[in-house]
Input
Amino acid sequence: MRRTLKFRRFKERLFQGAGLFSLCLALLFLGGILGDIAYKGYSAFITTEIEAGTATPDLLNAHASHSPETNRWITANSDVDMYVKKGYKGNLTPPQLQAIKSLEETGHIRKAFNWGFFTHSDSQESELAGIWGGLYGSLLTLIVTFLTAFPLGVGTAIYLEEFAPKNRLTNLIEANINNLAAVPSILFGLLGLVFFIQILGLPRPSALVGGLTLGLMSLPVIVVATRSALSTVPQTLKEAALGLGATPLQVLFHHVFPTALPGIMTGVILSLARALGETAPLLLIGMVAFIALPPEHFLDPATVLPVQIFNWSRSSEMGFIENTSGAILVLLFVLALLNGIAVVIRKKFEA
Amino acid sequence: MLCALGAVVITIGIVVSLIGEAFRFFARVNVFDFIFGLNWAPHTLESGEEIGFGAIPLFTGTALITLIAMAVAVPCGVMVAVYLSEYASPKIRQTLKPLLETLAGIPTLVYGFFAVATLGPLIRDVAGFFNLSIASESALCAGLVMGVMILPYMSSLCEDALHSLPTTLREGSMGLGATPSETIIRVLLPAIFPSLMAAFLLSLSRAIGETMIVVMAAGLAANLSFNPFEAVTTVTVQIVSLLTGDQAFDNAKTLAAFGLGFVLFILTLFLNILALYGVKRYQRIYG
Output
């Protein structure tokens, strides 16, 4: 008897240990991924500059825009950048290394915050490449996504939740929407390719097509979130309003919708955050092209931040690996911001 | 409110157009050659004959990577859910649960980059240390990272199910002398088994449809192999590689992507329906 008790206690501890172990393992893995990217990426926000007139042109970036009157510092080329920041020698020759050392000693070389990373668009040269084009493209795309998915999604949800009769057709629509919310995102890329580009003939790598495709993807998610927000509105509220003589439409717009709005906004923000991080469908509609200028309007060739990250990640150059990680950090920051806003909205209106 | 119905009509219309495209592909390439063919190297012969559209290597590649991912995500995810719901103090639970849910929202691109830039070379170096040769693009690497990606999703679903069980169930079992672990294994997990199945199926459908991790970390070579140390390719990788680049819509290679997309659609649809509705029939309400 005592032996079995001992054994059972041992099993209990083993089981609990296994739980703790897998929890730690999961957190370790996820923390490791984020830590690894942060470690690789922080240096993308730093750039190396050399004072004008103190170095031979082979250490400088040939295309850096530079006016001697306003700015004495010129961006160094990627090899120098990598050597100064991380000590990789790369293709530098011994005399060049010597020159860098003497520049460091005399203070003609400096590390500065890389504003260009945020203000430049994509470039073939890692030390000049920036994420502005991708960020701006993402913004335009998200605007289109919001404008299509929000009214349609909320409209569908209100209809299904408040007005639709319970019959076979609405059941089928419901099942369809629940399913679409779980369909792999890459299939929405195929849909976008056929429908918007082949059938409607919209210009291919534009923010409009990207936004519409992501809008289709977000639509079912928004419908599901809106419906669950609407269903939390107490029945008594509706009945009280109806009892005071309000029409069903007035009940909806004066009472039900405002009450459910925080929940709806939370769902919409989260689905936009998902759309912002999405890459696969956009690859299929041709947003992979190298685009050096930010789009001017919705029909211009555009790229988005995740696609730009994907393009950079295919390069084996040290400078681009750094840029990839840096851009991922920016993307994660924006996503964390959106999630934070959603949490704040939820907390504020919960009470 | 008719505009609301319009949304549904649009979605259905688009799905139909996708299916139409897939059927144009099957008009050119025999369905059986496509589903049961062993050789994937799509090209058109000079005679106009389309060959090399055997998708079996893609299916096995997808299956292998998904298998590795699920082998990581299922045991680990369930244990995490059990620990958070049954053992952890409320404070830890309240901090870790939102954290895990946020982690489930990290774009898969980020995981893909980690796989290709860090884990792949790491696996290659470790294998090199033991005198094995593993390419940095291996099914193992892609599968492991995909498992980590699915883990928060899986554990979040399981945790919800466990947490919704009434306390009376636990008290009853413990009152009969069972230890907490015996309660969990013999009472609680069987009670949420339908939800567990649903979580498993939804995770499976996500793993099969996952694109960015495999595009970045798995290879393009269509190897018919179950060796996790080799590079394999998946359905989603091939869809992306067939459609990126210059393309005309009446090309058999382009249409093949729609054929693959159609297969993927049917497969994930089946899994989702099974998870959302099939499992419901076995669900019991406790409490």
Chain B touches chain A through 83 residues (CB under 8 Å). Residues 56-87 of chain B form the longest helix (32 residues). Chain B has a mean pLDDT of 83. Chain B has one domain: 2-168+195-275.
